[in-house]
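Batch manifest line 237
LIGAND: uracil
JOB: complex structure
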Amino acid sequence: MEVRLQKYLADAGIASRRKAEELILAGKVQVNGVTVTELGTKVDDKVDSVFYNGKRIINHEPMVYILLHKPEGFVTTVKDQFDRPTVMDLIKKVKERVVPVGRLDYDTSGLLILTNDGDLTYKLTHPKHNVEKTYIAKLYGTPDENDIRQFKYGVHIDGRRTEPAKLQVLEENGKFSVCKIVITEGRNRQVRKMCDAIKHPVATLKRVATGKLELGDLKKGQYRHLTEAEVKYLKSL
Ligand code: URA
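JOB STATUS: finished
ARTIFACT:
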């Protein structure tokens, strides 16, 4: 990201922005080997090397961890080939380059983490990673004991059995039921396919928790920064 040189120096903790301006005007700052005394000069931390006092100033972006309540009707990619709205449209005020951790379908709502912490993203999306993901699903019809047992032993989807999963009927509601579903993998449209397999297709789907991290009462489209304890917890998984 391009920023003004004085901001770059201030963000790196070299001096206040005012003081950084004085350092630039005094010819003490070099960009790519050239002394710069123009205050408007923009630098990009990915491309440019900034030197002060003979030392390279590396300005790492602070790590940010966001929990978004993704509404239906948004894709979980940074850019969509069909120009549909993306979750990035919902977090415009976040200036760090965060990316979604894993995916939620276009028509699924709920808990989505976004971060610029590449290590955490890698860890949480690795296929071996088996943290429980909890969903509330409105299903057509009401699953019976046999369906619940099938979930427990794993359901055949895409030619392969899923890991054991939990299915609990919370509410019966005429044509529909409201169920709590817990899975530990992140296969493509997994919950929808598992519910299709037991002949109780999903009408609506919402992720309410990843491990112990809960969506809580965030409204659709709203987000918050994770607390330090929550970040610590995710890193410990
Ligand atoms: N399972 C699904 O089917 N869809 C999601 O978005 C997440 C899990």
